[in-house]
From TrEMBL:
This is Uncharacterized protein. It comes from the Eukaryota. It comes from Lepraria neglecta. Residues 1-24, 457-485 are annotated as: Disordered. Pfam families: OTT_1508_deam.
Length: 485
């Protein structure tokens, strides 16, 4: 019987990897490397993914994707609106993995709009949640006041809203019990800077803050209110925080210059709840308001599957040396892996179970791609997501963009290697996407082995010749350049 990953690739596999070692020349010749043939084995794939994820050699804050940066202003606004729509459909916090992340897409045809959404679980929304979504659409069609629409959303999404507010406050070392009342002006506002004074005047003139409240005090108050929010907070308390976040991130351009990009991104996400209400209501009005035909459909990924892998990073990665015996196994975590990947996790000996799931943005991407096959492939696939995509999802979409004329666009990626990532089953004519991902994973495992064994062979007193090895950053750059060709 074919393995899961064989089924995903769409082509049968002839297994020769254990009995016939691959030569060193083959392993280090880019034109000859085809690791996907070995990585179609489910057990090998799971262990390599787990091992690489534990090395965490791609770890960063969220950043805009290349295609998003190159997109037109209108396209960026549309993707941002889809990101915001995803926020309206999150009904759980971080501890509920199945509904803590949502992706969205939109299909327009013959005067109708079909909104699709997915999370990482195949569990359908509850009846109460479906009624909420239906009522939300009706409120947009009836052109209800923005604030009323937002107050309809808060009771269903307050858990995630409170979590986002807490995450922002935590960036300033603030939480519900430590509000840092003895500290002021967290954002570093200065009254002697004309731009700061202008922002303060604008907020006062538009009645977003009181006439006697300074910009620095308003920002401090906002942070402390955000830190205190919980899922038990009143609708009014949450509304006020969302209201202020919208004012700071939309009404007064320039505040983003006061903080680091990760802080600004978190703050903008909070303000996006109200901003998205405005954008969606405007779009519905152009479609005819109450006469508009709008449908919403939940997409379902394959069922989550629990797989057993080696807990130890060394043992998980060493499954690779059984397939390619020309690579001697790694033996020492500290000197062979930790040397090059300081954030790597050692793990305990033995086995552990990990739940593998297909991430929501790839579920939406596959659905939109299937719809596009009957329409123009030149149109871009625009995908909204409630949080930045992981490294593996971004890699998959980058490989897809190499052959998809219009491209598939998400707004951001956080670059982290998520454990338990399930690769989608290959669509007809798109098998090269899956093969490209598997080959990349194989190359990264090769890098870990090359660095580890090179370190072991050399004396500790000799410097490591990093130029002789392929660099992750260089591979990332080349991969990004391919995406925009």
């Amino acid at each position: 019987m074919a393995s899961t990953l064989e089924q995903q690739s769409g082509t049968p596999v002839t297994r020769q990897h254990v009995s016939q070692p691959v030569s060193s020349q083959r392993l280090h010749n880019e034109d000859l490397i085809h690791y996907h043939q070995a990585l179609r084995d489910t057990d090998l794939f799971n262990n390599c993914l787990h091992g690489l994820s534990n090395t965490s050699f791609h770890h960063a804050e969220g950043t805009d994707t290349i295609l998003y940066r190159l997109a037109s202003d209108d396209m960026q606004k549309h993707v941002n609106m889809l990101d915001g729509l995803a926020l309206f459909l999150i009904f759980r916090g971080r501890d509920k993995k199945d509904q803590s992340v949502v992706a969205t897409g939109m299909i327009r045809a013959a005067g109708t709009v079909n909104i699709v959404y997915a999370n990482n679980s195949s569990r359908p929304s509850s009846l109460e949640q479906r009624v909420y979504i239906y009522d939300l659409i009706e409120k947009f069609k009836d052109q209800d006041p923005v604030d009323d629409i937002l107050k309809h959303i808060i009771p269903f999404c307050k858990e995630k809203m409170a979590q986002r507010c807490k995450n922002l406050a935590a960036k300033f070392n603030m939480n519900s019990t430590t509000l840092r009342e003895d500290v002021s002006n967290f954002y570093g506002v200065r009254s002697d800077i004309a731009e700061h004074a202008e922002m303060e005047t604008t907020l006062r003139d538009l009645n977003w803050i009181q006439k006697t409240t300074s910009l620095s005090k308003a920002l401090d108050t906002f942070l402390r209110f955000a830190a205190k929010l919980t899922r038990l907070s009143t609708i009014e308390d949450i509304f006020n925080v969302l209201y202020l976040a919208y004012a700071f991130t939309t009404i007064t351009p320039g505040i983003e210059k006061l903080v680091e990009p990760p802080i600004w991104r978190r703050m903008r996400k909070i303000g996006d709840y109200r901003k998205t209400c405005i954008c969606v209501r405007d779009v519905v009005r152009t479609l005819g308001g109450s006469r508009a035909t709008i449908t919403i459909e939940q997409l379902f990924p394959p069922d989550e599957v629990q797989h057993e892998v080696h807990n130890s990073t060394l043992e998980a990665l060493n499954t690779w040396s059984k397939v390619f015996p020309s690579n001697s196994p790694l033996h020492d975590f500290e000197s062979q892996i930790k040397e090059h990947y300081p954030n790597a996790k050692e793990g305990q000996s033995g086995k552990m179970k990990i739940l593998f799931s297909q991430h929501c943005e790839l579920t939406v991407a596959k659905h939109l791609l299937q719809v596009k096959t009957t329409r123009s492939l030149l149109d871009p696939i625009e995908i909204g997501c409630s949080k930045a995509s992981c490294f593996w999802c971004d890699l998959y979409l980058t490989e897809l963009n190499r052959i998809l004329p219009g491209g598939a666009i998400t707004s951001a990626t956080h670059g982290n290697l998520c454990d338990g990532w399930m690769m989608p089953q290959a669509l007809p004519s798109y098998e090269t996407v899956n093969r490209g991902v598997l080959d990349y994973i194989g190359r990264q495992v090769e890098i870990v082995f090359a660095r580890g064994n090179d370190r072991r062979r050399k004396s500790d007193s000799l410097p490591l010749d990093r130029r002789a090895l392929p660099q992750d950053d260089k591979m990332q750059k080349e991969k990004s350049e391919r995406a925009i060709v």
